[in-house]
Amino acid sequence: MEEIETPLKQPVRSRNVSWADPQASAELGKQLSGLAYLQALHNGEIPPPPIAELMNMRLAEVEEGRVVFTLEPAEFHYNPIGSVHGGVAATLLDSCMGCAIQSVLPLGTGYTTIELKVNYLRALSSQTGLVYAEGKIIHRGGRIATAEGRITDASGKLYAHGTTTCILLR
User: Fold this and answer.
1) Where in this chain does the record put each Thioesterase domain (predicted)?
2) Pick the CATH number of 22-169 from 3.50.30.10, 2.60.120.260, 3.10.129.10, 3.90.1570.10
3) Which residues of 84-117 are buried (b: 16+ CB within 10 A; e: fewer)?
4) Interatomic CA distance for residues 150 and 135, integer angstroms
5) Range 55-68 average pLDDT
């Protein structure tokens, strides 16, 4: 067995995360159209879901068929190889694309992701600065909806893009 030299002990960093009851927010969502629910989230009338608090992502823009989330990549997003974990980009894309679909759904219609495709183009790091995850609806049918998404920085540089397919639940 090979011995591996370990680095000196480093000071431990910490972060506190708080969130509201997600079931209460979900129940409110059942009383609104998809767009009205997202607008209420955006306006702070409904608290953000725990995943948004955990990852420190914010709902920045909402309109019918289009949603933008923002996130500033930070050290707490890092993986063992020293860059932001790919799951952060996947979560941003899943969120913006899913919410773009949600924004066109009437009262009483839900959705869930059944397929997610992500293309990673360049690594995110704590030096990247604020990124924007924009999701746009491509198609809404009776049972299936699709959307596309892009993650860019403030200068418009593309970091990742993807597509999703969601099933509509009535």
Assistant:
1) 82-158
2) 3.10.129.10
3) beeebbbbbbbbbbbbbbbbbbeeeeebeeeebe
4) 7
5) 98
